[in-house]
Amino acid sequence: MLEPLLSVLATWRVSSMLVREDGPDDVFAKLRMFTGMKYDERSNPYGTNLISSLLSCVWCTSVWVAFIIAALDKPANIHKLLRRALALSAGAIIVDEVITRHWKW
Fold first, then answer.
1. Helix intervals (H) in 21-104
2. Which long-range CB contacts under 8 A does 18-24 form with residues at least 24 apart?
3. Terminus-to-terminus CA distance in the chain, angstroms?
4. Whole-prediction pTM
5. 45 by DSSP, 3-state: which?
6. Treating both helix axes as pointing N-terminal to C-terminal, what angle do 78-102 and 58-72 enclose, rounded to 10 degrees?
7. For the residues of 20-41, what is the DSSP string, one character each?
8. Angle at the Cα of 39 (from 56 to 86), degrees rounded to 5?
9. Distance CA 77, CA 82 (A)
10. Cβ neighbours of 102 (radius 10 Å)
């Protein structure tokens, strides 16, 4: 029962780091800049291409992170992989919504 929760939290954490945090030695900020991420006058991120668009919000990023985490569990078939990945992404989005409504970044 604990394993799915850990996977959801890991999906949210990695997604949040990629989207919001600078990281040690600004590694995540440099990654976003390298992919073409830009910021408007209100410091809201927007992508200039497909890759940077995928790193512009936790909702978008969590889908791809969830696929990686679900694949690491070595699911038996593609249906289980899709189901797990979508469930992990949904869980990460729920965690993100709860946290961002209660704590301001």
1. 27-35, 50-54, 58-72, 78-102
2. 18/55, 18/61, 18/65, 19/45, 19/55, 19/56, 19/57, 19/58, 19/61, 20/58, 20/105
3. 30
4. 0.87
5. strand
6. 140
7. H---GGGHHHHHHHHHT-EE-T
8. 5
9. 9
10. 7
- What tens digit of pLDDT does each residue of 29-58 get? 999 999 999 999 998 888 899 999 989 999
What are the structural domain ranges in the chain?
2-102
User: H/E element holding 17?
Assistant: helix 2-20
Residue 29: its pLDDT value, please?
A: 92
pLDDT grade, residue 105 (50/70/90)? Answer: low
In this prediction, residue 102 carries a pLDDT of 83
